[in-house]
């Protein structure tokens, strides 16, 4: 039997609909892909740069940072791309020849010119922050300190960057910016205040305390839930929408070089015929020290003995226990007018949370291979004691490539770090493993410089910047996909439910 004409035509018509849909679908997909490709075409990278000079007591380092300009308020986007160690000593050593302070920076600044694209040099800010070495020079001779600062300022102005100033930062700033740096790099700010705090299993990591051991001063900074009893030790921050009450203290004269001077100066009365037997150096080690140089530091001024010989022949005896006793003697734990003190009458709340220890803490612990994994306090003491007991000849043979200044001081430095942390701040075997010894975090050096730059360039907002849940690309892509889907649905409905045109043409 012949198929009725109408049914045949209906079938033809359905075929046309299917054909139309078949043609529309790939068209939709092509449109979608085109939109996605156009939308996600990588934008030209707009990178910004910043330079910070850390003019420390022992040396100056030049750090270069970069970040994508469109993301500068996000956390963790700034990273260190270069660092340059200035040859010679810190700028405070040029008190008698200030022009040399500026000249010393030339090489590293020339290197910065090679690293930063020429087009962007004019808009790249340069900051110089001087720390404890310059604080001590200012105490000794304010004019000399001024001259050194103008010398470095003139040098930095001569470069095609946007020079923003050279100044001596306070110990409080040094502690605060060190704390900001490590928590920024560890991602602790955003974890505490980001949207994922609303997730059911969210456990805030909290912030990490910062322990910085320099050559002339040392800083301890940590968030404290307890009342901070002295105003000068109290910091308050609002970062990414969260408030932080932070304790900080900078001990001038308790950096490792000044602490060594204190230890030696304390022992001068025991010297006979200019020979000073020092348990903090390996046995067989000898060092000639001028007493006028020793006493030139304001840290030592009240330990000066008028009858001291002009030179001291310091001879190592390599005895950890005796060294520890000498080192403990430079901490005064007898006076405290607060509920709790660290040492020298300085208020310190109970230690809280984890700590990142950097600068000389890291250099020394890394040398002693004590930075990886959980190592008990007893094991650390044992390692330092073993190192101190090694004869100097043996130490030199074992580490022929390490600079003598550094190598000769690891026994003292190891003992000093242990004493400062345990006897000074009150760490013990229970909370010892709350300390992590950090050199770099994600390729950036742990130190105050990054925090300083973040603050001066206003890159840490007080409130959490509004960020929509979807990125712009995802949003546009989804919008395009749903629009196409909607058009297809409308088209299908229209083709399915309208009276087929072909039937209208008078067949029925
Ligand atoms: N072993 C070792 N010691 C180092 C190294 N670099 C610096 N030091 C020493 O470690 C101590 C601290 O160094 P820094 O953190 O650079 O100190 P600084 O910034 O110059 O001093 P402050 O102004 O007090 O912060 C000083 O005694 C330096 O001589 C290193 O690479 N290895
Ligand atoms: Ca430092």
From TrEMBL:
Alphabetic keyword roster: ATP-binding, Calcium, Disulfide bond, Glycoprotein, Hydrolase, Magnesium, Membrane, Nucleotide-binding, Transmembrane, Transmembrane helix
Q: Please list the residues that make up the active site.
A: 174 (proton acceptor)
One Pfam family recorded for the sequence: GDA1_CD39
Its cellular-component GO annotations read:
caveola; plasma membrane
Task: Quote the protein name from its UniProt record.
Answer: Ectonucleoside triphosphate diphosphohydrolase 1
Where does it reside?
A: Membrane, Caveola; Membrane
Matching entries from PROSITE patterns are given as: GDA1_CD39_NTPASE
EC code: 3.6.1.5
Q: Which Gene3D superfamilies match?
A: 3.30.420.40, Exopolyphosphatase. Domain 2 (3.30.420.150)
Tell me the membrane topology, using the record's own terms. Answer: Multi-pass membrane protein
EC top class, in one word?
hydrolase
Q: Give residues annotated as binding ATP.
A: 215-219
Q: Which Gene Ontology terms cover its molecular function?
A: apyrase activity; ATP binding; GDP phosphatase activity; ribonucleoside triphosphate phosphatase activity; UDP phosphatase activity
Family assignment from sequence similarity? Belongs to the GDA1/CD39 NTPase family.
Q: How does it assemble?
A: Homodimer; disulfide-linked.
Please give the function described in this protein's UniProt entry. Answer: Catalyzes the hydrolysis of both di- and triphosphate nucleotides (NDPs and NTPs) and hydrolyze NTPs to nucleotide monophosphates (NMPs) in two distinct successive phosphate-releasing steps, with NDPs as intermediates and participates in the regulation of extracellular levels of nucleotides. By hydrolyzing proinflammatory ATP and platelet-activating ADP to AMP, it blocks platelet aggregation and supports blood flow.
Reactions catalysed, semicolon-separated, are:
ITP + 2 H2O = IMP + 2 phosphate + 2 H(+); ADP + H2O = AMP + phosphate + H(+); a ribonucleoside 5'-triphosphate + 2 H2O = a ribonucleoside 5'-phosphate + 2 phosphate + 2 H(+); CDP + H2O = CMP + phosphate + H(+)
Question: What is the gene called?
Answer: entpd1.L
Question: Which taxonomic lineage is given here?
Answer: Eukaryota, Metazoa, Chordata, Craniata, Vertebrata
Q: Which InterPro entries match?
A: GDA1_CD39_NTPase
